[in-house]
Amino acid sequence: MATRARPPLVLLLCLCLASCLSSAIGGVSATGNGYRTTAFLVDEEGRRLRAELAAVAGAGGGSTAAYGDDVQRLDVYASLETDSRLHVRIADADGPRWEVPQDVIPRPSPEFFLQTSRPGRPVLSTATSDLTFAIHTSPFRFTVTRRSTGDVLFDTTPNLVFKDRYLELTSSLPPPGRASLYGLGEQTKRTFRLQRNDTFTLWNSDIAAGNVDLNLYGSHPFYMDVRSGGGGGAAPELGPDVRRLSLTARQV
């Protein structure tokens, strides 16, 4: 009997920052205190969720020396756009920032979430979707799990860092041998598979493609995570800022 192929997960992250910022996606950092979740709103169909976050106060009263203070309040919007595509948007709750325009990539507005939501559980899942999105409250993190296999496809442990000049978001990886990562261009690499303990700079540069392991003409903040059983997912990240991505043995 033929088995039903598992659809790939597409996780679309929208990280709303000012256009002059720099960001990093990498390992554990001491540059932020993290966030706690203060409220949830979920629509009746269980396909859209809005969460309100507040910065955790540290020994410095919520301030961290590196890269300035944490943004104090964030909004997280998550929606199951299809049974195999999840969209997550993280934004400053107290003011607009530049985002990829709606006419380039149409997506639900924050007002849409407010009009169709009510208090509920911090989980998105439907009977037809193989994906479960869950928010963990204190400290804030979110996970994306494939229900049919139990695989955790995205896990933002440890703390989210969100500042005016710096952003840090991580995703845990399974042990070596259980996942292969591809993407994060544009670079000339020795292998298609991304190597762990490597760093990738996404900043367009007029450098000939014959140069290995250097950022080239284009920036493509997208990676594919192929698991040993044939499943997996993919994660594009939308934002206007420079990106530096670090792939370690445990995190991207």
UniProtKB/TrEMBL annotation:
UniProt GO MF annotations: carbohydrate binding; hydrolase activity, hydrolyzing O-glycosyl compounds
Keywords: Signal
A biological process from GO: carbohydrate metabolic process
Residue ranges occupied by any Glycoside hydrolase family 31 N-terminal domain in the UniProt entry: 84-229
Pfam families in UniProt: Gal_mutarotas_2
The keyword RNA-binding is assigned to this record: no
Signal peptide (UniProt feature, chain positions): 1-30
Superkingdom of the organism of origin: Eukaryota
The protein, known as: Glycoside hydrolase family 31 N-terminal domain-containing protein
Organism: Oryza barthii
